[in-house]
Amino acid sequence: AIRHYGAAVDAPVSYGKLFDEAPRRAAYHANRAAALQAMRQYCDAVMDCCASHLLDSKYLRALQRRADAYLSMGDWPNAANDLEALAPHMGAECATKLAEARRKVKKGTTCDHYAVLGLGHEASGSEIKQAYRQLALKMHPDKAPKPELRSQAEAMFKHVAQAYATLSDATQRKRYDSTVVISRFRRSGGY
């Protein structure tokens, strides 16, 4: 699916058809984002949703998918921003997600570093390094496909760098893993 949506997104468009094609290309980007998210490639999904929103700012599916990608990564402030924009148009599920995101923002909960890198918690040091290198190249602000996406690419690059800094250092990773285990234990009613 990713390859097919990528081909549709990258297909050449004549200048005269650009404005007619924008909503369709926005849908292609959003659909590719959904496929990326299903593969736990949340940073790529966020960037595709940003491109979709840039092409058609009224296409709410892009905001919805970007909010879901942010939620999956644990980027609560950005998820809350998108959910606030969606709240007037969506139903109770959006309101529930927004309340949860706001609660996590107040608690100061940080991103899930493993999710940012698209890895599971059992990832080895070499897998972490490889994921970081790939994402750092993709998310580098200088590699942004459009100047309007540079600030978003910079934010994603910072997430990737922070995740790598935490997970590549053995003591920081152990400390991070223990806080994740404790928070899961508390959520399950252990404390």
Structure explained in plain terms:
Helix content is 74%, strand content 0%. The protein contains 10 helices and no strands. Helix 2 packs parallel to helix 4 (60-73) and helix 3 runs antiparallel to helix 4. The protein is globular, with a radius of gyration of 18 Å. The mean pLDDT is 87.
Give the helix/strand layout:
Layout lengths: L1 H9 L7 H21 L3 H14 L4 H14 L2 H11 L5 H16 L5 H5 L7 H15 L10 H19 L1 H18 L4
Helix pairs in contact: 1-2, 2-3, 2-4, 3-4, 3-9, 4-5, 5-6, 8-9, 9-10
Euclidean distance between termini CA atoms: 43 Å
SS summary, helix count: 10
Largest sheet: none
Low-confidence stretches: none
Structural class computed from helices and strand pairing = mainly alpha
Features of the shown structure:
single chain; 191 residues; mainly alpha; 74% helix; 0% strand
Briefly, what is this?
This protein is mainly α and 191 residues long. Helix content is 74%, strand content 0%.
